[in-house]
């Protein structure tokens, strides 16, 4: 018997965790954290509803925290097996997991001070840096397109997903002794936007029996990339005399934004602007991207070469990097000609929150969102037009002009999701994961109408029988 239980990213976008059981052998696909809300409180509530010691192997699609962030807790709870991922994913994990751990421990320390003042018992950490280091030691690098037997009867092939550096679709061949042969399952992970720069298009997928398919943008299409760039130009023009804040994910979105601003620079469209990357983590990640340029799109690499650039930083000469807090604070004294790219991408932490505190109430501030904003995040509140927000316990009026550039998304939209699924040979059954319920229902109807596939939407904790 082969079953699948979705312990996260089920009718929601974050917390990807999918547990396969193949005649008692257990493989966990991703082990992500739920995003939104205060970190220490969220982790305290977010239990792992399975026995870590009973899992035989973990396969990681990519490094984003909503796919990888719970790995340290998995090892804290006794998991001792391998974690399979690409080499680039391992490099990124070393940055993202350490940063997330430091943020969590700082939040916990602050919460415990409050608890002590109230006479309450302090909380012990649910994981620490030793657990992060254990995750990195457990990782085993698996290159793209090389089939590997990770357990008896379980073969895995990672295919380029085109989402962020190192991102993979996970193709599994599962032999449970059935006469019909191994069951073939594809987990899409997060599929890339074909129109985005830097990343290659998702790799072709062979015939499979089941597809676990992401559905983040299952109910809508992105603006065309050309229209998105036109809108970005309009924002740059309308914001002259002010400051642009760009909340950006350290992995993927930051590098895409820097690359596109580099294109604008060489086209003469950034005159009068200085770009500041105000995120130590994003700076470190950008250097990792520079180390893996061979995984990037060939046409975009050619543009770098044309300008004699060997790094993304060199491609944007008006770029400034702020490593320390004093340099970040000094930006508050500059009131025009500044584009500040800072994390976090959903405004639920990081230096962008401090910049919002100093600028969100100013109508000369332009707030530029370039990615999906999950429910429960400050970014979602701003995108949905909230007139007041809370920052550091105080209320602030929102007078900044808010822009959303959908074409910058690193996720495939509905049109691309349907094209991707339609290119898979055969008639696979489909399970929609990693999407909000409304997006999944719309995509389900579109798939059934166009292809006639059987489409299911697993609920949180629901077990699906893939083969009796």
Protein model, in words:
By secondary structure, the chain is an alpha/beta fold. It folds into two domains: 2-219 and 410-467, Metallo-beta-lactamase, Chain A (4-Layer Sandwich); 225-408, Rossmann fold. Helix content is 33%, strand content 22%. The protein is built from 15 helices and 22 strands. The strands form four sheets. The chain has a seven-stranded mixed beta sheet with strand order 6-5-4-3-2-1-22. Strands 7-8-9-10-11-20-21 form a seven-stranded mixed beta sheet, with helices on one face. A six-stranded parallel beta sheet has the order 14-13-15-12-16-19. Helix 4 packs antiparallel against helix 5 (129-138) and helix 4 (87-117) runs antiparallel to helix 8 (280-291). The chain is globular, with a radius of gyration of 22 Å. The mean pLDDT is 94.
Main traits of this protein?
alpha/beta, Rossmann fold, 2 domains, 7-stranded mixed β-sheet, 15 helices, 22 strands, 22% strand
């Amino acid at each position: 018997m082969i079953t699948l239980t979705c312990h996260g990213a089920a009718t929601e976008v974050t917390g990807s965790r999918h547990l396969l059981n193949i005649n008692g052998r257990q493989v966990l696909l991703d082990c992500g954290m739920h995003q939104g809300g205060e970190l220490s409180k969220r982790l305290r509530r977010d239990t792992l509803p399975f026995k870590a010691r009973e899992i035989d192997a973990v396969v990681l699609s990519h490094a984003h925290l909503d796919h990888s962030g719970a790995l340290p807790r998995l090892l804290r709870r006794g998991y001792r097996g391998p974690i399979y991922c690409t080499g680039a994913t391992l490099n990124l994990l070393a940055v993202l997991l350490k940063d997330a751990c430091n943020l969590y421990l700082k939040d916990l320390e602050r919460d415990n001070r409050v608890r002590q003042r109230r006479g309450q018992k302090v909380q012990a950490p649910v994981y620490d840096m030793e657990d992060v280091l254990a995750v990195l030691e457990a990782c085993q690098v698996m290159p793209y397109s090389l089939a590997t037997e990770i357990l008896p009867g379980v073969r895995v092939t990672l295919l380029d997903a085109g989402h962020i550096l190192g991102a993979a679709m996970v193709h599994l061949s599962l032999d449970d002794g059935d006469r019909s042969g191994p069951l073939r399952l594809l987990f899409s992970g997060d599929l890339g936007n074909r129109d985005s720069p830097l990343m290659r298009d998702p790799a072709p997928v062979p015939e499979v029996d089941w597809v676990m398919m992401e559905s983040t943008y299952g109910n809508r299409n992105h603006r065309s990339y050309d229209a998105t760039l036109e809108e970005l130009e309009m924002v740059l023009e309308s914001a002259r005399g002010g400051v642009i804040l760009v909340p950006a994910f350290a992995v993927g979105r930051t590098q895409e934004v820097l690359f596109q601003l580099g294109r604008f620079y060489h086209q003469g469209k950034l005159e009068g602007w200085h770009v500041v990357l105000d995120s130590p983590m994003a700076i470190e990640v950008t250097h990792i991207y520079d180390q893996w340029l061979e995984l990037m799109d060939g046409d975009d690499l050619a543009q770098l070469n044309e300008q004699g650039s060997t790094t993304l930083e060199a491609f944007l000469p008006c770029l400034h990097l702020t490593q320390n807090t004093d340099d970040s604070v000094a930006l508050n004294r500059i009131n025009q000609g500044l584009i500040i790219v800072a994390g976090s991408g959903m405004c639920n932490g990081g230096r962008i929150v401090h910049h919002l505190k100093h600028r969100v109430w100013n109508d000369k501030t332009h707030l530029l969102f370039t990615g999906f904003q999950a429910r429960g995040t400050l970014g979602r509140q701003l995108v949905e037009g909230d007139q007041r927000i809370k920052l550091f316990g105080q209320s602030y009026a929102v007078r900044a002009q808010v822009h959303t550039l959908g074409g910058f998304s690193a996720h495939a939209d509905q049109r691309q999701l349907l094209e991707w699924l339609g290119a898979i040979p055969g008639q696979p059954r489909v399970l929609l994961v990693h999407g909000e319920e409304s997006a999944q229902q719309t995509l389900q109807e579109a798939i059934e109408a166009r292809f006639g596939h059987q489409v299911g939407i697993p609920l949180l904790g629901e077990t699906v029988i893939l083969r009796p």
